[in-house]
Amino acid sequence: MKLASIAKSEIQALWNGWDRFWFDPLHPASLGLLRILAGGMLVYTHLVWGLRLSEFFGDSGWQDPLLVGVFQREGTAQSFWWLVPAGWMWPVHWACVAVLICFMMGLCTRVTSLLSLAIVISYAHRVPLATFGLDQINCLLTLYQAIGPSGACFSIDRLLKRRKQAALAIAAGATDWCRAEPARASARLATRLVQLHMCVLYLAAGLAKLKGEAWWDGNAIWLGAANFEYQSGDLTWLAWHPWIGNFLTHTTVIWETTFWIFVWRPKLRPFVLLAGVMMHAGIGLFLGMWTFGLVMIFTYLAYVPPEMVLRAQARLLAFRRATVLEYTDRFWSRWWTAWRCAMFLGTPPRLRHRVSHKSTAPVTAPGLPPSPAAWWQWVRRQWEGAWPFLPAEGLRTALPRRIVVMSSRVAIQINLEQRLRSRGLYCRTAADVPAVASTLASLAGQCVVFCVHHPEELADVGALRDICLAAGKLAPITVTAIDKSMFHKVSWPATIEHRLISPPFSCADLLVEIGQAWAQRMNGEAFPKTCLAEVIVGVETIATSTAANGPTVPKVASPPASAAKQSASTPLPARRKPLAKASHLQ
Amino acid sequence: MEFHPATNGHAVAPSAAVDFGKSEPARARFKRPWLKLLVSLWLIYHLAGLVIAPASVRPSSDLVRSCWLAVGPYLQFLYLNHGFHFFAPDPGPATIVRYVVDRPDGTQVQGQIPDKRTMRPRLLYHRHFMLTEFLGNSDSMDPALRQLHTRALARQICQSHGGQSVSLSKVVHQLPDMEWRKAGLSLEDPQLYVEEPLGQFALVDLQ
């Protein structure tokens, strides 16, 4: 009884180990990258077949059906080429190349991977006398990629899936839409098969070499180098340095026969694979078989953890910062935003619904088409704020319309940005100082809002403020939102172009600060002092005219109609108090 | 309720709120135990085949050859029946085929397969090279196979050059030792080529 329980537990442990080794879910990133590389090699290989298609695949070519039949007699080798009439050779060949391209790009990968496997096997079985190691590796890689989810990453399938996710998120009004590809048991299975197949391959190659004399006396590398028909790079200088050839010969045998042991040791794996890369690169460079060398190197991707592939992808696309994509209620806006999400490389952007209050077509008298001037005004309104180089008209359009909000808190970024945009201002957000610094060149005459949440951020903001102010006349107006409790730590005072504001403040307060700073700057140059009040009115008018369009936009008290006609003697309103408690940012 | 900018403050349906933006998606496993068992059985068979294939290359034992009967058809169907004897047991000399084609107008065309100068890209050169390498290795194979291969070579060469007959010869390019190179001799020295005539073939007999 006890023996039975021990045996049962041992069998259970064995099965668990087997289960973990073969079926523990794995992210398919490595497999996706392998599909691109191996698929590219498949496409190239079959394009080269096309250079002499009739010579190799024709009934009266290098390998006629009788010859191949005798060679493969009593076998199970099958090829669809035996069913293709001579007149259909080219269409079938190009159809096969098209399928392989689809497989490489990851389009309908589940189907095209199986079709690619059939194609690779059929080509190899039709011309067995002209195949070599490249075709063997091509075939095994295609087989295992057909087993695993090779199209789950870096593929058109994935692109379409992302588009669908974005479309669903837009329909649901969600901001985050991208779902990471799940780890899968089939990915582990396919990866393990490639790994084990390579272990068997190298062990068989190493043991077969041990049967030869040249691999023992150290001359094998020289014999390979002296083979003129293989040679693509001159290695005959090895004759004067025989010890190099001996060393490479012995190293090759030792490496091949021990690959299956050392490649499983995580600490040794990089060195084992690096040696393999060097060996196959050497075969490609000096023996002219760069296709074979490359495809062997591609198989090493099975030993690369998918986390490493994803990390490399993130580093490569680090320049694509996370951003926000807006969409309106229009069909085309939603459709295009979903595609933009799907095609966005790097950190997936967030989605945001925008009420398109500026998109109404120009209104004219009933029955009459809009005049060209009305259309031009409408076009200008579409671009206003988003395009900083249009000539300004009047005071209101001269106001800073492009505002960069820097805050380390995402909630603040989104909240402030949404409210500023609802007022028709072009707003960008940044999470850190480098992000602002990288956009400084395009901020001339515009505005930067710094939100300081911690005393540690003061030094960075102070440095960036100095950089902004050093630009002189072109310096952007800077507004620092800083809590009063931290005021005593600020070593730089408020100036005309640098304002300090303390929370809680409303968006209208912020605009007033900007307007005042702008007006004072203009006053110092050529701006008439009489227009100072109009600046404030202009700000208010913008806020008022747009506030009613969004349900969450805080209502701002409209100024009296007579305010616009105030004279220069009208006293400048002092710093306004928060207009609505609900609109407080903090 | 916490403000949600994307929805303008409106509540988001719970399903929508949890469906998007998951950082840790579910890990897909085999849901059916019997499928896992079937796959495991196939794995054992498949891996056994991968090991038996190179082991069955001669010289091999009767046991391995018997096992090969069980896995050989499966491996051959999937084009996995390989010995992986790359450059083994020893890197051997290369075999090339030289030909002289007689055209109907009395002119002759000479050439060889493979030819680095005319066969590009390199992969195409290697395809042709494998054809002649097979001829070099076919001495120990079925004579009928060797004869068929030679006739196919002759027919294709005749057709591609518009000839009516062709004479073929198998040329083995011997590998020199290091002393040869140190003596200043070239790898293309004529002494390294050993030529064996394969015969004269008329196109009408090859059709």
Task: Write a concise keyword list for the protein shown above.
heterodimer; A: 586 residues; mainly alpha; five-stranded parallel β-sheet; two-stranded parallel ribbon; 23 helices; 7 strands; 54% helix; disordered C terminus; B: 207 residues; alpha+beta; four-stranded antiparallel β-sheet; 7 helices; disordered N terminus
Report on the architecture of this protein.
The complex is a heterodimer of chains A (586) and B (207). With 586 residues, chain A is mainly alpha-helical. Chain A contains 23 helices and seven strands. Chain A has helices at 2-23, 29-51, 53-57, 65-71, 89-105, 109-126, 133-147, 156-172, 185-209, 214-217, 220-225, 242-262, 269-286, 290-299, 306-316, 331-343, 372-383, 394-398, 410-422, 433-438, 457-469, 507-525, 532-547, and strands at 324-327, 350-353, 402-406, 426-430, 447-452, 477-482, 498-501. Chain A has a five-stranded parallel beta sheet, with helices on both faces. A two-stranded parallel ribbon of chain A has the order 1-2. In chain A, strand 1, helix 16 (331-343) and strand 2 (350-353) form a beta-alpha-beta unit. In chain A, helix 2 (29-51) packs antiparallel against helix 14 and helix 9 packs antiparallel against helix 12. With 207 residues, chain B is α+β, with helices and mostly antiparallel strands. In chain B, 43% of the residues lie in helices and 16% in strands. Chain B has seven helices and four strands, in the order H-H-H-E-E-H-H-E-H-E-H. A four-stranded antiparallel beta sheet of chain B has the order 2-1-3-4. In chain B, strand 1 (94-102) and strand 2 (108-113) form a beta hairpin. In chain B, helix 2 (33-55) crosses helix 3 (62-77). The longest helix of chain B has 23 residues, at 33-55. The model of chain B is unreliable at 1-26 (pLDDT under 50). Chains A and B meet through helix 1, helix 2, helix 4, helix 6 and helix 7 of A and helix 1, helix 2, helix 3, helix 4 and helix 5 of B.
